[in-house]
Amino acid sequence: MIYKLLLVVGLLFSSAVAQTKANKSGKINWKKSYKMALKAAKKENKPFLFIISRHTCKYCVVLEETALSDEKVIKTLNENFITHTAYTDDGDYYPQELWQGGTPMIWFLLPNGEPMFQPIPGAIPTEGFVEALDTVMKEFTVIEEEKNTCKVKYEALKKENAALKKEIETLKKK
Prior knowledge:
Elements lengths: L1 H23 L9 H11 L3 E6 L4 H8 L5 H10 L1 E6 L17 E5 L10 E2 L4 H48 L1
Parallel strand pairs: 1-2
Antiparallel strand pairs: 1-3, 3-4
Helix pairs in contact: 4-5
């Protein structure tokens, strides 16, 4: 029994070490499924880069070999995004409403799965991809700031409402 436990712990440790090495060696930290990626995006409150692709698609391969192999892109994605690619020729799951009839189809989604923008179809040059990542990060920051402002205003209105209710109750007693 103790040997099984040690074996499981050893396997988990080696898997974590391998994942860390993979990320340091210039690989994107792709989530294994759309649902896992969406769950991680919600938990970590990060934008979700979602690509619909095919292994046999010329432009999908170009995208993988250019923009998605660039060190700056890899670093930005691993630090600031949750990522997943669904391969249609593998039968990977993806929401049907995101299908636009071609591959690759690059989506930037909010942590709840809603699209931030229209998708980018096809392979885009690395410089354009870097620009897109910057734009998404700026927009995501604005959205988060707006959400926080709304939360602050909501809390202030709740306090004001509670004070007014208290005042009304006091007036009713007179």
